[in-house]
Amino acid sequence: MAVRILIVEDDKKTANFIAKALMEEGFAVDIMHDGDDALAAIKITPFDAVVLDIMLIGRDGLSVLKQMRAHGVQTPVLLLSARGELNERVEGLNAGADDYLPKPFALEELTARVRALARRGGDVKTPILQIGDLTLDTISRLAERGGRRIELTTREYRLLEFLMRSAGRVCSRMMILEKVWDYHFDPGSNVVDVYIGKLREKIDADCGVKLLHSVRGEGYVMKEAR
Fold first, then answer.
1. What is the CATH number of the domain that holds 51?
2. pTM for the predicted model, two decimal places
3. Per-residue pLDDT at 123 exceeds 70
4. Are residues 205 and 94 in the same domain?
5. CB of 61 within 8 A of CB of 133?
6. 23: alpha, beta or left? (left if phi > 0; alpha if psi -120 to 50)
């Protein structure tokens, strides 16, 4: 599965500049320009690393960072700042930043630092995912529901892991294609719907509580609901 990076930068030109460089390195990239929207996304989405500008409109980057850590989100963060004063760097690192890069910066250095942080983030991801009585061991790649072992193909495993890490969040077909198939375009097939059907048959069949739900016109969501 592609490594997923969130860029939080209110200057759209700069954000797109960074995103293009990271995507050329094989990362999957999301962009947000508002601190409040970014914080809400970070709380529910399993990003591998966050590139966070300090100077944001509305909620600033340091506030976003402090709230992340206060909510127990340990996703690695690379702070960006146009000022680069020592006291600002110290404040950012004390607030929980993992790295700091002053503007202007070389894209090669930024991508190298993001790659290092993403590796670190991958090391601390929760190895056991659970929704209701469904568990997925991401180390052994074993899935069980109610003590019953579920046999998964490689693609089914990737789909289930992505949906479980995004629990409670509606995932569009395009999002699933990007994260599970590494497609950054719609190939015009129903491959997502076919695999959702296969996965639903394996995890929800003969179970009173369904976990994989369709949201009409939007996509799919994993959650415990009757």
1. 3.40.50.2300
2. 0.56
3. no
4. no
5. no
6. alpha
